[in-house]
Design goal:
The complex is a heterodimer of chains A (about 475) and B (about 400). Chain A has about 475 residues and is of the alpha+beta class. In chain A, about 30% of the residues lie in helices and about 25% in strands. Chain A has a domain of about 80 residues: Arc Repressor Mutant, subunit A. Classes of the chains: A alpha+beta (about 475), B alpha/beta (about 400).
Chain lengths: ~475, ~400
């Protein structure tokens, strides 16, 4: 195994993955160190998946700057990476006249940030655009540049493209020690592996403060805010057409209702300050979500909930992104809370420029920005399906009936960068198990495919690494 | 490709429908099965008790399925396995996909027999973490009976549906400790015989009016918190109890698998979650029939077979003699009745009505009203887990505007 790199990126979330990709646009050797069993294991897996227009961030902040640049970059990034992205537009709905009074403020702020196309819509037009809008809503701010993206899809594809261009990914590598060397840093993992890097980029999300501490950087603190969500079945996926927000408060953008790029309906998040990182959901969250969402859209079919989950959003004590050098050779990208996903392509570009400048790196002429896209087999026409099946019969075999995922796609997920080695890994890449039966039918088949592909025993297959084993009672 | 009859699903309903249609004269037909082998969920139901009503003998699930499969094979009926139906039009064009590609069957008649799926844990909004070790009961059954893996050793089961009860016994027999079964209702939704044979015989406690309020554990389940619920099914503060376990099974209801049907645009009954049908199991689109658990969730496979034969014969009649004229009256679910199937009855023929009660009680009186006719039937006990049926003579509802079924406690 190679142990000396130009750049080590700590953290395989959306920032780390896109940063690795941008770094590979330069002539640099890059390794991504991820403590979990797969990329997109933290906030990148469980967030709203919104590409924010950029009217919310305070002008002059890094959030405002990178939000607007990132929004503009998102479409091309997703096209190159084969990631689902839809510019469905956002609505901020006013429930009271006080809130209605805030809408122009948001509009002004958005214009100051450089957001295009903002306008205020009155009820009549609003009801046309969003048929289920709640009765009490009198007006809304419409942002046509708001969009939705699959956050873990973006992370996985970015990491895959970085790897296809030569970046390495080490999962299960928890950095626990950093020693300054003559040319950079030596990093030590929890299980005793060592490697060196001339420059370390800290994209550790929830662990960013801890990682910074290993280098002696203690100039920021990370707090946790838990956000709980409910996901509804595809049969009601078009209940909202736009991403519908309430007027933001100090606590954040509040609960939203949005379609997802995969056609589900998402309601959330709550906002709960935490002392410790946790992704458990609270019982009280469900009634809170129902109540807040119902103030924006009427009669939301909550009977169609297929799952609920929580994500932990890490924010810095500056309440703005931290994008700066710490100790020599250490760059921190920390506190990337909302609009972090939107900003991610722009942040990644900034990181790569900073690092390349510091190392005097040249452009990598061999970089291929386009990722060989996963087959979203279900969405192909009958002719295209027949062409694919003729080449590989595995695409004619459906494994996940709810999402109509084929065996060919399961093979792709295990054999493309970054390879899936867990049930969740397969799920995030293919959607097998993500539908209305929530893996009841396909899980045993997927487990079996993982065993066959990697020569593992049933008891070695995990949900998402560590001791999350599926079979713990032994073979009969 | 043209086919007179296309049957979607090769489980017990599809197989019985195929045999009945063949015996009524249809030859050009195919059964489409998405799995490698026909037989449906019976393949993994290796316990006995199947066939008691129909064959007066106790068979395992695979034995019951094999009996129908033998009949299908004896008639040379084609079963297309590993084939998935991706679309169905009201024009009865069936789009299929398998390892040879995507193709369309132009059917003269279609029988829907896709079965049902388990309601998932995700639909319940249980607080807590999402570790490994949470399974629907049927998934655990597949692991144990088909693959030979025991998912866990210390088990809590939420919901007392039949699969949950069967798995309580099955996991116990394989060496797991089943701590308890929690049921949010005041009665079990499973068969009484399963409560006796799967829980009582193994001293597994059944906590009625209890639910799981929190799941704990970071990577694998470590414990659950259970609590008693009030009349509104809300947990009663102070009744919480933490039970260590490594596995939670969910047996919280079955849902007819009608995603295909919805895309076709057939009318669905919100009570049964299956199609609206007449006594022939014909849907609102003539020539499309439905039977088995895709139509309504049955308690016994014996009734699935019976219903599928009705649909199979009717499809044959439709193909051979064309659509017949009907005068329909609605069937009505009265007091204490959840639903009545079929939802409408054609006049001129005797009709067998299937229905489920809403709650369990003893000394029940079933009351059927059709115009002037009122008939009552006594039952020692009724329960929502058990389907009831009553046959009404054609003459008894010849002049009626509706047939109403209600159930009351004996005075």
């Amino acid at each position: 195994m190679k142990v000396n790199f130009d750049v080590a990126v700590v953290g395989g979330g959306v920032i780390g993955a896109l940063a690795a990709r941008e770094l590979k646009k330069f002539d640099l050797s890059v390794v991504v160190l991820e403590s979990a069993a797969d990329v997109a294991a933290g906030a990148s897996k469980a967030n709203s998946g919104i590409v924010h227009a950029g009217f919310d961030a305070v002008p002059g902040t890094l959030k405002a700057k990178y939000n607007v640049i990132g929004n503009a970059m998102m479409e091309q990034t997703c096209r190159e990476l084969g990631v689902k992205y839809i510019r469905n537009g956002s609505l901020v709905v006013a429930r009271t006249c006080e809130e209605e009074g805030i809408l122009p403020e948001l509009l002004f702020r958005g214009r100051q940030n450089g957001v295009k196309g903002l306008k205020i819509m009155l009820r009549e037009q609003l009801a046309e655009e969003e048929p289920h809008i709640a009765d009490g809503i009198a007006a809304a701010l419409y942002a046509p540049t708001g969009g939705i993206v699959c956050p873990y899809g973006l992370t996985i594809a970015a990491m895959g493209n970085a790897m296809d261009n030569g970046a390495e990914l080490l999962c299960g590598f928890t950095v626990v020690g950093a020693v300054k060397t003559g040319t950079g840093w030596q990093l030590v993992s929890a299980d005793g592996h060592e490697l060196t890097a001339r420059i370390v980029v800290n994209c550790a999300g929830a662990g960013a403060e801890q990682v910074a501490g290993l280098f002696g950087d203690t100039f920021f603190r990370i707090g946790f805010r838990r956000g709980e969500y409910m996901l509804l079945d595809k049969s009601v996926g078009t209940y909202a057409k736009h991403t519908v927000f309430s007027v933001p408060t100090k606590a954040g953008k509040g609960v939203l209702v949005t379609p997802t790029v995969d056609g589900n309906l998402l309601v959330g998040p709550t906002s709960v300050e935490e002392d410790e990182y946790t992704t458990a959901t609270r019982r009280a969250a469900f009634s809170e979500l129902r109540q807040k969402a119902s103030a924006m859209l009427k009669e939301i079919p909550f009977g169609q909930v297929i799952t609920s989950f929580a994500g932990e959003r890490s924010y810095s004590d500056r309440h703005d992104f931290i994008l700066e050098w710490g100790k020599p050779g250490v760059f921190h990208a920390a506190g990337i809370e909302s609009p972090g996903l939107t900003s991610s392509p722009a942040i990644a570009e900034h990181i790569a420029e900073q690092v390349a400048k510091a190392l005097g790196a040249k452009k990598n002429g061999d970089f291929v920005p386009v990722r060989r896209s996963m087959h979203w087999f279900k969405d192909l026409s009958a002719e295209e399906k027949n062409r694919v099946i003729a080449q590989d019969a595995a695409y004619g075999h459906i494994v996940c009936r709810c999402e109509e995922v084929t065996l060919g796609e399961i093979y792709e997920a295990m054999r493309s960068n970054p390879p899936a080695r867990t049930l969740d890994g397969i799920k995030l890449r293919t959607r097998a198990g993500m539908g209305r039966c929530q893996s009841g039918f396909c899980q045993p088949s997927v487990l079996h495919e993982l065993m066959t592909e990697f020569g593992m025993a049933a008891e070695e297959i995990t949900k998402n690494g560590g001791d999350s084993r599926i079979i713990v009672g032994g073979e009969l | 490709m043209k086919k007179q009859l296309v049957i979607i699903g090769g489980g017990p309903a599809g197989l019985a429908a195929a045999v009945a249609a063949y015996d009524a004269g249809v030859r050009d037909m195919v059964v489409i099965e998405r799995e490698e082998k026909a037989g449906g969920i019976l393949k993994q139901c290796i316990h006995n008790g199947f066939g008691l009503t129909r064959f007066k003998e106790s068979m395992t699930g695979p034995e019951y399925a094999q009996r129908f499969l033998d009949e299908v094979n004896a008639r040379g009926i084609e079963i297309m396995t590993n084939t998935f139906v991706t679309g169905l039009g009201t024009d009865k064009k069936v789009t299929c996909m398998n390892e040879s590609g995507v193709f369309t069957l132009e059917a003269g008649a279609v029988i829907l027999a896709m079965g049902c799926r388990e309601r998932s844990k995700g639909a319940l909004n249980i607080a807590g973490t999402r570790p490994a070790g949470l399974f629907s009961a049927g998934t655990a059954q597949k692991y144990v009976n088909i693959y030979g893996y025991l998912p866990g050793k210390r088990v809590v089961i939420l919901g007392s549906g039949d699969i949950g009860l069967i798995m309580a016994r099955r996991m116990t027999l394989e060496g797991a400790k089943v701590e308890c079964v929690c049921e949010i209702m005041e009665h079990s939704s499973g068969l009484r015989r399963n409560i006796a044979q799967c829980l009582d015989d193994f001293c597994i406690p059944l906590y009625l009016e209890h639910t799981i309020v929190e799941i704990k554990g970071k990577e694998r389940v470590e414990s659950v918190v259970i609590a008693q619920v009030d009349k509104e099914k809300q947990p009663i503060p102070g009744t919480e109890r933490e039970i260590p376990c490594d596995t939670v099974l969910f047996s919280v209801g079955l849902i007819p698998e009608n995603e295909l049907t919805k895309e076709t645009g057939l009318a669905l009954d919100p009570h049964t979650k299956g199609c609206f049908v007449d006594e022939n199991r014909e849907t609102d689109v003539s020539g499309i029939f439905a039977c088995g658990n895709v139509l309504h969730v049955h308690d016994l496979v014996d009734f699935v077979s019976e219903e599928a034969e009705v649909a199979g014969r009717a499809a044959a009649e439709y193909l051979i003699n064309g659509d017949s004229e009907h005068v329909y009256i609605p069937t009505v679910a009265g007091e204490n009745v959840g639903y009545v199937l079929p939802q409408r009855a054609g006049k001129g023929k005797d009709i067998k009505l299937y229905f489920r009660v809403r709650s369990a009680f003893r000394n029940a009186v079933i009351r059927v009203e059709a115009g002037e006719m009122v008939k009552t039937y006594k039952r020692i006990a009724v329960a929502p887990g058990e389907m009831e049926n009553i046959t009404i003579k054609a003459a008894d509802f010849a002049d009626a505007q509706s047939i109403r079924v209600s159930v009351t406690r004996e005075a």
